[in-house]
Amino acid sequence: MKKIVVGITGASGSIYAKRMIEVLVEQGILVHVIATDTGKKVFNYELSLNLEDWITEMQQQYSNLKLEDNHNLFAGVASGSYGFDAVIILPCSMGTMAEISHGLSSNLLCRAADVALKESRPLIIVPRETPLNTIHLENMCRLSKVGATIIPAMPGFYHHPQTMDDLINFVVGKILSYLKIEHELFKKWEDTKYED
User: Fold this and answer.
1) Phi, psi of 35 (to 5 degrees)
2) Alpha-carbon gap, residue 32 to 21, rounded angstroms
3) Strands 149-150 and 123-127
4) Which pLDDT tens digit goes with each residue over 102-126?
5) Which of 37, 111, 132, 164 places its Cα 20 to 30 Å from the Cα of 82?
6) DSSP class of residue 181?
7) Residue 132 neighbours by CB under 8 Å, 6+ apart
8) pLDDT tens for residues 134-164?
């Protein structure tokens, strides 16, 4: 069974995390959710859902979903020997990205990201901020140089989205495609002839 850590921070875009968790558990992947304190607050503010309550409800149908305590550095995902397959942080705040890019592991989410880097496992950062200042860009570059993948929450439009869900599914699908996880969240680009 694949094991993926999904991190949720206080950046806007909680809907991406919710959709990612839904898709992963539906595919039978073991999902460890780590949310910062502000991430929980933004999740509630944007989606009118309490994260803990929502996960408890999801666990009634899916046993492959676990909410981790971000303050518990004794959790399995804090160790390289646990062997998770990837860490996805979406949305990723600039504060969390700065901590990870400077090797700080003051909480479980940053520690799991650090483990992914040191063990050469996929670490996907989904920044949700605009405009970006030079510090933000330098931290992204710093992480990219040590093996992280930056996938901004930038939906495409070649699949002719009709709804908000289409835009959300595009971003989630891009992350899944990078991890080589099959999905049908959006129509893939195909070679096509364009006639003027």
Assistant:
1) -120, 135
2) 9
3) parallel
4) 999 999 999 999 999 999 999 999 9
5) 37
6) -
7) 140
8) 999 999 999 999 999 999 999 989 888 999 9
